Amino acid sequence: MPVISKIQIKNASITKTNLFKLLDLISQEKFLIAPAEGPDLEDINFLPVTGAEQICFDYENTLVPPKEYFFGQSECMFSFSPRSNESITVTDQSEELVFFGVRPCDVKAIELLDKFYERSFVDDYYLSKRACSVIISVACSQLNEECFCTSVGSGPVLTEGFDIQLIDAGNDFAVQVGSEKGLQLYEQYQDFFGAPIDVDAEKEFEKAKASEPGFDLQRVYDRLKSNKVDDRLWADIARRCQSCGLCLLLCPTCSCYTVIDRVTPNGRNLRMREWDCCYFEGFTRMAGGQNPVKPKEEMIKRKYYHKLVQQIDEFGMSGCTGCGRCNTVCVGNVNWLENIRKIEGSGRDV
Ligand code: SF4
Ligand code: SF4
């Protein structure tokens, strides 16, 4: 069963005061995850909050995408005893989560991960967590410096695919309910909401698109697919890239992981999965040391092709949602957007 059951969009509104009260109540009654400043880090990230005063309302986006709650950086799949198959214990994955403040690009990224984990091999570890989560997303009022969501159709306002979407309308938020799970949450807290505010999401999207330099995704797709991109581009990126992996580990749509076994100090054996990255040298290395994809350029080219061709073919949506995180964190001065514009033919030559 799909993790999102879309419904015809229901419109409402909520005052900013009521939103604060609502989130406060949800944080006491449920497990609320929202943008907040961690105790040791200045970055804003999605963290469990126990009161609305802990939520950061004035933020662009989080450093770590919300995918970590469905697909953990390091998660135990099951514990086992090497001497007996019967002692396998599968980790319980079903805690009810309410998310507040997820940006439209990250909602689209979760939609892509849903499609990925729902295809031929159904991944229960991911899907069980998604099934019991509901997301209140907040549309962006302005495009941030590193973002290019309008070029890939993932923001700054969504037209579908959300549970509940809030759109800033001054003193109030326009509220759009777009799924069964969103409707259940809306009905549970109906007293907080008011009369519909009319917002034309399509129009807001088109307005934002006109103001973003961006690129033509179709042209990028065509040029990559027909192999029209000069190989010097991949060589240039490979020269700068330090293989730190940050751009992929923090990408909200990247889903690669590796599986390892750990033994805890008290003797429990854990089978873990942990985020992995195709820019790491060992990613394609096989037992015996053979590596079928040696040159770094090949992996780099493959990343662009995977996100901007293959995932469009497979899932009908771009594998890049334009969140801009990869540009922000790169230690090698590799600019993903600038490179896409070079692929398109609108950027400077390599
Ligand atoms: S490739 Fe970069 S801009 Fe695109 S979704 Fe991933 S982190 Fe965001
Ligand atoms: S963040 Fe930059 S340097 Fe690090 S792997 Fe990605 S492209 Fe390479």
Q: Can you put this structure into words, describing what you see?
A:
The protein contains 11 helices and 11 strands. The protein has 2 domains: 6-211, no CATH class; 217-344, no CATH class. With 350 residues, the chain is α/β, with parallel strands linked by helices. The N and C termini lie far apart (47 Å). The protein has helices at residues 16-29, 104-118, 124-131, 180-188, 201-211, 217-225, 231-240, 246-249, 296-315, 325-329, 336-344; strands at 6-15, 31-37, 44-49, 74-81, 84-90, 97-102, 133-138, 164-169, 172-179, 257-263, 269-275. The strands form 2 sheets. A 7-stranded mixed sheet has the order 1-9-8-7-6-2-3. It has a 4-stranded antiparallel sheet with strand order 5-4-11-10, with no helix packed on it. Helices cover 33% and strands 22% of the residues. The chain is globular, with a radius of gyration of 21 Å. Helix 6 crosses helix 9 (296-315). The model has no long low-confidence stretch (mean pLDDT 91). Strand 4 (74-81) and strand 5 (84-90) form a beta hairpin. The longest helix is centred in the C-terminal third of the chain and has 20 residues, at 296-315. The structure holds iron/sulfur cluster (2 copies).
Question: What is the gist of this entry?
Answer:
The chain is α/β, with parallel strands linked by helices and 350 residues long. It is 33% helix and 22% strand. Helix 6 packs across helix 9 (296-315) and helix 7 crosses helix 9.
